[in-house]
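User: Teach me something about this protein's shape.
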Amino acid sequence: MPLFLIERQFAEEVDLSKGDVDEITRVNDLSAAHWLYSFLSSDKKKTYCLYEAPSAEAIRKAARELGLPVDNIVEVDRLQPDDISQEA
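Assistant: First, the predicted structure itself:
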């Protein structure tokens, strides 16, 4: 399934409860979007979230239902240092 990086800017600090996470998961499941993890900026007002989803629109749909901002979505590929072969 494709991977997407979602940038979100919030007006206030992000502070999620277990209930918030459960609701995000429930709504995402309806769009077949899977939240893998997020990075939170030091001021706690911006997130960069990695999702698996069938499309960027599936992520936008879930975000609209949840009332979450979506400032940018980029489809990405995974690249890890161990994936790079070294030439002799």
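Now, about its shape. The longest helix spans residues 18-30. The chain has one domain: 3-78. If you'd like, I can walk through any region in more detail.
User: That's plenty for now, thanks!
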